[in-house]
Amino acid sequence: MKRKTGKQLIYFMKYQLYLLCLFIISSLIAAEISAPKMEIIDTERGRATSFPQGITITDKDTKINGTNALFWERDNVAQIFQVVIEHPQFKITAETARYYFDQKKTILKTEVKVDSETLSIETSHLILDNRQNIVYSESDIIIKEKTQNIEATSKRAKYDFKEQIGIIDSQPVLKIIGQKDNEAVIVQSNKMMLKNREAQFFAIESINARTENTILKCDSLVYFLKGDSGYALGNPQVVDNQNRVQGEIIKFFLKEDSASTSSLSLNTVKIINSAIANYITEDGKVEVWGEIFSIYYQDGKPTMIIIQSDKNSLVSGKYLFTEQI
């Protein structure tokens, strides 16, 4: 049997010590760590384990990769650089991250991007709850829904990947993008919620939805992502310059632009139950009542209103806008 030389013995002992250190660290943090190299160094925060050639932390179905990292055993926290987090439901990248092993929480900073099958998220600061698979941000955040051409921005948002529900509740703005800027539908409210599994977007309180020429106001609004339609409740009204239409329920329908399959523009608005329309003309004001008002749009502008009434109503007919006469 060939005996080891002194150098080989020293290398063998260092390697065994390296494996032992990895085993001890992994045991303490209840996660698996793999790295090609590790060193013990002194930092301003105290003694730390350095991983200068990269690190991979595996905790159940989550894998955290970095080009280099520092681990402070005293605090049970790791500082990771050029981070890539991989999970079956999402992938997150950022310049830096701190992973708190006890809390199973990751705080990511600078150029944070989240990508999933249906969503993408961009922000400068993000918290990931690794136990619950929930991301949360109190910085400017952009959420894009991939299956439809819509985009939401806010000062604060949370998304639960397990339940596929997002809450956007600080100056939220939803943009349903058309082929042209003036065809986009912009929705503002106090709070919004995305139910991705049901393909529904909710807006709650002080809602103002507008196109270039029309404003829809209401207390609550639901937009169906797959149906390109929605409805408004709570004193809903449509305002066009000095003209106003209101009723108990307002339904709206978007149409797909013929020149672009990913672009949508306003097609029809229906005001249902106790509908009232007020129009300003050269001779004064016209007020009309009916059961259902249907407003039709072309290139973002209203072109015609059809008024329907039941047998007990006094008014029914059609209103053509001046340029259509």
Description:
This protein has one helix spanning 6-29, and strands at 32-34, 39-43, 46-51, 55-59, 62-66, 68-72, 77-87, 90-100, 105-115, 119-129, 134-137, 141-145, 150-154, 156-160, 165-170, 173-176, 185-188, 191-195, 200-210, 215-224, 229-233, 237-240, 243-246, 249-256, 264-281, 284-298, 301-308, 317-320. It has 325 residues and is mainly beta. The longest helix has 24 residues, at 6-29. The radius of gyration is 29 Å and the shape is elongated.
List the helices and strands and how they pair.
Layout: H1 6-29, E1 32-34, E2 39-43, E3 46-51, E4 55-59, E5 62-66, E6 68-72, E7 77-87, E8 90-100, E9 105-115, E10 119-129, E11 134-137, E12 141-145, E13 150-154, E14 156-160, E15 165-170, E16 173-176, E17 185-188, E18 191-195, E19 200-210, E20 215-224, E21 229-233, E22 237-240, E23 243-246, E24 249-256, E25 264-281, E26 284-298, E27 301-308, E28 317-320
Antiparallel strand pairs: 1-4, 2-3, 3-6, 4-5, 5-7, 6-7, 7-8, 8-9, 9-10, 10-11, 10-12, 11-14, 12-13, 13-16, 14-15, 15-18, 16-17, 17-19, 18-19, 19-20, 20-21, 20-22, 21-24, 22-23, 23-25, 24-25, 25-26, 26-27, 27-28
Quick synopsis:
The chain is mainly beta and 325 residues long. The protein is 7% helix and 61% strand. The longest helix is centred in the N-terminal third of the chain and has 24 residues, at 6-29.
Features:
325 residues; 1 helix; mainly beta; elongated; 28-stranded antiparallel sheet
Radius of gyration: 29 Å
* Major beta-sheet overview: 28 strands, antiparallel
Give the overall silhouette.
elongated
Number of helices: 1
- Extract low-pLDDT stretches: 8-20, 22-29, 258-263
Structural classification: mainly beta
Task: Estimate the helix proportion, in percent.
Answer: under 10%
User: What is the strand tally?
Assistant: 28
Q: What oligomeric state is this?
A: single chain
How much of the sequence lies in strands comes to over 45%
Query: Element order, helices and strands?
Result: HEEEEEEEEEEEEEEEEEEEEEEEEEEEE
What does the average pLDDT come to? 81
Distance between the termini: 105 Å
